[in-house]
Amino acid sequence: MDDKPARRIAHSRAEEILDFFGKCRACGYPAYAATTTMRYDDGGMETKVIASCALPCGWTGEVSATPMTESAARPGT
């Protein structure tokens, strides 16, 4: 038995990945994804990319953070 207290999430933030064009692993329909960053009460931090089906099939899972388009340089002002 582990006597260490479980760490708790102190703060989390999710940002949608707009250039993610992956497919649902359950039904093949297009999926959307977000980068979720969690900060824990012990000072640790963890980032995951979570995708979900755009249909209500219910699939959601961790995926790789591979952007599907190249970022364009912004013109100077």
Please specify the SSE layout and strand pairing.
Layout: E1 9-17, E2 31-40, E3 45-53, E4 60-62
Antiparallel strand pairs: 1-2, 2-3, 3-4
Short synopsis of the structure:
The protein is mostly beta strands and 77 residues long.
Q: Roughly how many Å apart are the termini?
A: 60 Å
Cα shape? elongated
Per DSSP, the total helix count is 0
Over the alpha carbons, how many angstroms does the gyration radius reach?
A: 17 Å
User: H/E order of the elements?
Assistant: EEEE
Number of strands: 4
Q: Which structural class do you get from the secondary structure elements?
A: mainly beta
Model regions low in confidence, pLDDT < 50 over at least 5 residues: none
How is this structure best described in words?
- This protein has 77 residues and is mainly beta.
- The chain is built from no helices and four strands.
- It has strands at 9-17, 31-40, 45-53, 60-62.
- A four-stranded antiparallel sheet has the order 1-2-3-4, with no helix packed on it.
- A hairpin with a 6-residue loop joins strand 3 and strand 4.
- The chain is elongated, with a radius of gyration of 17 Å.
